[in-house]
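Record 1 of the preview.
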Amino acid sequence: MNWLQEAFLTPSMIQAVIIISLVAALGLYLGRIKIFGISLGITFVFFAGILAGHLGIVVNKDMLYFAQSFGLILFVYSLGLQVGPGFFASLKKGGVAMNMMGLGVIFLGLILTVGLHYATGVSLSNMVGLLCGAVTNTPALGAAQQALLQINPEHTKGVTDMALACAVAYPLGVVGVILAIIILKAVFVKNKQKEETEKRDTTTYVAEFHVSNPAIYNKSIKEIMQLTEKHFVISRVWRNGKVSIPTSDTRLREHDHLLIISVKSDVESIKVLFGEQENVDWNKEDIDWNAIDSQLISRRIAVTRNRVNGVKLGALRLRNLYGINITRVNRAGIDLLASPGLRLQIGDRLTIVGEANSVNTVGKILGNEIKRLDNPNLLAVFVGISLGMLLGALPISLPGISTPVKLGIAGGPIIIGILMGAFGPRFHLTTYTTQSANLMLRQLGIVIYLAGLGIDSGAHFFETVFCAEGLLWVGLGFILTIVPVLVVGFIAAQFFKLDYAHNIGMLCGSMANPMALSFANTTVEGDEPSVSYATVYPLSMFIRVISTQLILMLFM
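->
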């Protein structure tokens, strides 16, 4: 049995893989347990690693460091690819105000971190560790640890203490945001009731209109589009009992009936433009679109052809060439309006209406080879990681900082991931991965990172917590969690009139806290918290990863 004892206790490559795998498995199993309806989920891997370290299990340092680093790189790069397509779009229009509020949560936390460092005498590196735990952001911790080693390569104890501080603050980091949500719900209950009675007006909406405005009689659809700033798609035209697919040259006549796809908030403006809205519900899920007219079919076509990747929808001229209409584009589960300026991406699913032969022809142009989507483009993943590491190693000189700043293994890959996800299609670079494949990469990366982080910091965890300094850390971490969330939450509701559902989603996104989001979703009927979370999450995650490095560079 000596071989079995050596496999588990003798530091080696085999032992490192076995221990990290067992810690990950135990943590994932315990993560299913809910206490008062709340579960730490995947984060339990971190605490399983701490338990293993506390029990005296020693793993080869080089293997542990590599596992942690590669896991973090895999996680942040996959995260960048995921949020990249919506990253810059989230900064536009209504997303600007919400992102500014999210940044307010982040900067208030940074100010408190520096202030409490000077007020309590707790080292800045430990305060940054507490901040990372308070906001439940382990990628930010990884970036901060890299920055600390960059400042002082010999300061390995500081790196370990930073992880301990993060672990101490983490549990209350989850609970603190949930407590803040409960407080906001109690204070702004009227806002919540109002929000629950109103539907979100930015959803894709289908309506039928009767042309009765003399100002547009005998005008082409192209001419009518120039009369308004609103974006919409005319899917079908009924004239004298016959259904047809309009082109930009189609001229509308009195008493035509139009089926129009738009966002719900634009319906009233479209009604003014065309005349009357028919009292027919075209948004029911059980509508058989193919039964509307026997000559027309409605089909979803997937974009799988590389040469279409990144091309503007209007540049393909599909409507005029083939007599079809593209009514909407579904990207990653979200319906987008099929505007001419929308750039197509591999994996988009287009709803196309037209005659069967025309729809089939367009399907061949776009690809529609579903099996191709089952195979993620790993070339883009490894090229992106390489570019991310090069960017992370690039020294950047900033005024007032003697040591050049490096984005490190967390900052570099997430930036490249975002850029490739956002702009890759414009250069005909296929970065598409299925949602399940991207989730697999992210989960695998973060599990390996958390397991290694816990094992590395577990030896002194309990003796740190159960002492005067440990209790101080718990209190400071709770302050860093709840104060920024409550302050910005009150300001957003009181002065910016942000309703309860969008408010709590924004706060969860700014804290990058999916556990709190799960709780927030149980307090409302709609999906507004998830929408707000997705709006602010990309920028907030990026700023948190970068800011922990900058704060150490500036104040240490």
